[in-house]
Amino acid sequence: MNERTETLRRKSLDAIPSISGERAEITTAFYKENQGRYSIPVLRAMNFRALCTRKTLWMGEGELIVGERGPEPKAVPTYPELTCHSAEDLRILDSRAKTQYKVDPSVIESYEREIIPFWRGRSMRDQMFQELPQEWHDAYAAGCYTEFMEQRAPGHTVADGKLYRKGMLDFKVDIARAEAKLDFEKDPEALDKREQLQAMAIACDAVILFAKRHGSLAATEAANSTNPFRKQELLKIAAVCAHVPAHAPRDFHEALQGYWFCHLAVITELNGWDAYSPGHLDQHLWPFYQKGLGDGSLTRDQAKELLECFFVKFNNHTAPPKVGVTAAESGTFTDFANLNLAGLLRDGSDGSNELTHLLLEIIDELHLLQPSSNMQISRKTPDAVLKHALKVIRNGYGFPSLFNADAVVEEQLRQGKTLEDAREGGCSGCVEVGAFGKEAYILTGYFNLMKMLELALHDGLDRRTGKRIGAHTGEPGTFKTYDDLFAAFETQVRHFLDIKIRGNQIIERLYATRMPHTFLSVITDDCITRGKDYNAGGARYNNSFIQAVGIGSITDSLSALQELVFDKGELPLPKFVALLDSDYAGQESLRQRMLNKTHKYGNDDDYADALMTRTFQMLFEAIDGRPNTKGGAYRLEMLPTTCHVYFGEVCLASADGRRQGQPLSEGISPAQGADRQGPTAVLKSAAKMDHVKTGGTLLNMKFTPSLLEGEGGIDHLHSLVRSYFKLDGHHLQFNVVTAAKLREAKTKPDEYRDLIVRVAGYSDYFCDLSEALQDEIIQRTEHAHF
Amino acid sequence: MRSGLVFNVQRFSLQDGPGVRSTVFMKGCPLACGWCHNPESQSPEPEIIRMRHRCMVCGLCPEQGLEEPVGRSRNEADVEACPTGALQTVGQQMDSTALVKALLRDRIFFDESGGGVTFSGGEPLLQAPFVIEAMRLLRKESVHTALDTCGFARWQELQEASAQASLVLYDLKLMDDARHQAATGVSNRLILQNLKALSAIHQNIWIRVPIIPGINDDEGNLDATAAFLVSLPGIRQVDLLPYHATGEAKFARVGLLSTAQGILSPSIQRLETLAAHFRAQGLTTTLGGQP
Question: What pTM was estimated for this model as a whole?
Answer without folding.
Answer: 0.94
